[in-house]
Amino acid sequence: MLKQLSLWLALSAVLSGLATAADYAEFTTPGLAKAQITHSDIAPLITYYKEQDWLEVTELGRSVEQRPIYLIKIGDGERKVLAWSQMHGDEPTATAAIFDLLAVIEAQQKQQAATGEGGPAWLDDISLYLIPMLNPDGAERNSRFNALGIDVNRDALALQTPEGQLLMQAAKKIKPHYGFNLHDQNRYHGAGDNKKPATISLLAPAYNEAREINPSRHAAMQLVSAVKPLLDNALPEQLGRYNDEYSIRSFGDTFSGMGISTVLVESGGQYNDPFRQQARQINVQLYLSWLEMISTGRYRDFDLSGYNSIPMNNSGGMKDLIISNINLPQADGSGVLARVDLAFTAGGNGRGQAVLDEIGDASIYGGYHTLDASGMNYSPGKAYPLTGPLSLSAEKYLQLLADGYSHFSGEAGLLTNSSGLPVAINPRGVNKPWPQRRSTSTFLLSKDSAVQLAVVNGRLIRLADASLLDAFSGN
Ligand SMILES: [Zn+2]
């Protein structure tokens, strides 16, 4: 393990190479690779770290519902760094990364104890303060807001939430030179016009409407420039810059105004990575790089050109599923009326039902899942009436789809679905010959009169092998 550790640290230290997934696995805190991380997930970790002597874990205070909020302190150096995660309860990626960072530091400490070298070089210069999961009540509900329904990150001025009060008190007491505001962004943010997800977005928040650059914001921008090579290497074309419009009620902007060099880190979507494990790993590398560069002052060698060259986030630039080049039939079913792309995202807070939100030319978007349906014809499909109890095996269902039935009508309780595939009962948007924006997510695609694909509540069934593509899971 120590050999792998040195290899990994050597790699991340030069910033030119990247740790492999296997290297990182050594420091991945178990049990946190999931969509929702709650207080009960971190409680045993807190208990464990409370007993270690190389860090201090204290209770900073309590949430509205009396869940403990913790402050972790490592090192006793002059430069003070404060990082906090999950002030939005449904944004857990950085909480996992903070515990992975602790695992790395612990391994380094053990190596130092065993061999007299290999300890974290930054420890002499930095006092690192970490608040993992500032909003445990929101985490419990998988909600952005606290238990009062308040967005803690819009409470920096009013300070009506205990969570916001605790963060402000900590900042005033610690007086950090550097702040790291750790969030998740929705997976529909693209990195500029790259048609790729912004897996990481960074920002040195403005401290006034004019978005001026004072020395403290300048330093935050340099910190971003300094890690751009690492990110360009790890995530080619998948780094974005978050909108820097001044937000007077937000903590990042308020801290920036207090002279704290603040960096916003937003973890975002990635292909085939529903729980954002790559963003989690890169977060750890970012933290280690920043600690090293704050300790040595090396980030001051970077100008703002790196920061300024990061493409802005493209909100809505990514879709969950894009099916392109679908032939829409004439109203009487003869010939092709138009050829369109259909682009879907999940509704609500990014989880759940598919929503058709673009019909037409979707070529400007990137898709987490894409399918070229050239030569295939759209049909809403027929309704199979539920007139009595129906036990639906996979074989029976595939036959119905092949016969042109896309959905069922009638009493849902009559259907026992044992096919392992999704079914649509009385879906919207099937009463028109063409797909309906915001409404259609169930239809059939045929080639030479043979049904090839069924889209059922936005989930794609390939009839040839009964395979299912579920494009809407994850964060
Ligand atoms: Zn957030």
Automatic annotation (TrEMBL):
Domain of life: Bacteria
Secretion signal span: 1-21
Domain Peptidase M14: 23-327
Family matches, as InterPro entries: Peptidase_M14
Pfam families: Peptidase_M14 (PF00246)
Family: Belongs to the peptidase M14 family.
GO BP field: proteolysis
Name of the protein in its database record: Zinc carboxypeptidase
Keywords annotated in UniProt: Carboxypeptidase, Hydrolase, Protease, Signal
Keyword check for Nucleus: no
A Gene Ontology molecular function term of the record: metallocarboxypeptidase activity
Enzyme active site: E292 (proton donor/acceptor)
